[in-house]
Design a protein that fits this description.
By secondary structure, this protein is α+β, with helices and mostly antiparallel strands. The chain contains five helices and 15 strands. It has one domain: SOS response associated peptidase-like (hypothetical protein yedk fold). 21% of the residues lie in helices and 35% in strands. Strands 2, 3, 4, 7, 8, 11, 12, 13 and 14 form a nine-stranded mixed β-sheet that branches.
C-alpha cells in the first residue's frame, strides 16, 4: 500500500498534465514551498492535513485541497480507504465514477523483512500524476470536502523486490482522459497499460530518512 508520498517544491512540470495550467502549477509550488520537507500522509482522526488534488472543473482541471481517505457519517472510514486496488475497479467500474490526479514527486514504501524505507521517483525530480478515485465526505466539523483514494496495481519486475503494489501512474498525455472519460473497464485497462510503460522510468533508492 502507499501510505506516504512527497511533493518537492523544486519539481519540474513536464509529466503532469497534457496542458499544464499555470494556476495549478503556481498553486502546487506555493503549497510545496510552505510544506517543504513534509511527507504527505493520510488524513484522519489526529492528522487533519488537506493535500493538493487535481480534479475536473467546468472547463478545465482545477486544484483543490482534499482529504486522503474516505469519510463516512462525518468520521474517517473504519475500513481501509487510502488505497483502492485496480483489480476491484476492473471488476466494478462504477467505482471510477469520479476521479482525480494526485501530484507528486515520489512515493515511499518499506522493503520487508529489512524494514528499510525506499523512495520511488522519476528522473530529475519531475512532477508526475498518480491515479485517484474520489467521493464527497463530511468532516467531523461538518464541512463537505473531496476525499480521495490512490489506485494501486502490481509493479513491474524492477520495482517488485521492494513492494508488491505501486500507484497507477497517469502520464500527461492521458490526464484529460482519466479525469473526464466515461467510467468503464476500458478506462482502467488503458490507465494500467500507460502506467506500466511510465513505470519503466521510475528509479528506487533507500530513503535518506524515514518518511
Amino acid at each position: 500500500m502507499c501510505a506516504s508520498y512527497g511533493l518537492d517544491p523544486r519539481f519540474t512540470d513536464a509529466e503532469l498534465l497534457a496542458e499544464a495550467d499555470a494556476d495549478i502549477l503556481e498553486g502546487l509550488r506555493g503549497w510545496a514551498a510552505q510544506n517543504d520537507g513534509e511527507t504527505l500522509r493520510p488524513t484522519g482522526k489526529n492528522l487533519r492535513n488537506l493535500n493538493p488534488l487535481i480534479v475536473p472543473g467546468e472547463e478545465r482541471a482545477v486544484l483543490e485541497s482534499a482529504w486522503w481517505g474516505y469519510l463516512v457519517d462525518g468520521q474517517p472510514a473504519k475500513f481501509p480507504s487510502i488505497n483502492t486496488r485496480s483489480e476491484r475497479l476492473q471488476d466494478r467500474p462504477g467505482g471510477l465514477r469520479t476521479r482525480a490526479i494526485i501530484p507528486a514527486t515520489g512515493w515511499f514504501e518499506m522493503r520487508k523483512p529489512e524494514r528499510v524505507w525506499h523512495e520511488f521517483t522519476l528522473e530529475d525530480g519531475a512532477l508526475f500524476g498518480m491515479a485517484a478515485v474520489t467521493q464527497r465526505g463530511r468532516t467531523p466539523d461538518g464541512e463537505w470536502v473531496t476525499c480521495y483514494s490512490i489506485v494501486m496495481a502490481p509493479p513491474p519486475p524492477h520495482l517488485a523486490d521492494v513492494h508488491d503494489r505501486m500507484p497507477v501512474l497517469i502520464p500527461a498525455r492521458m490526464s484529460d482522459e482519466w479525469l473526464t472519460e466515461a467510467p468503464d473497464r476500458d478506462l482502467i485497462d488503458h490507465a494500467l497499460a500507460e502506467s506500466i510503460e511510465m513505470s519503466e522510468r521510475i528509479a528506487v533508492k533507500p530513503a535518506s530518512s524515514r518518511p
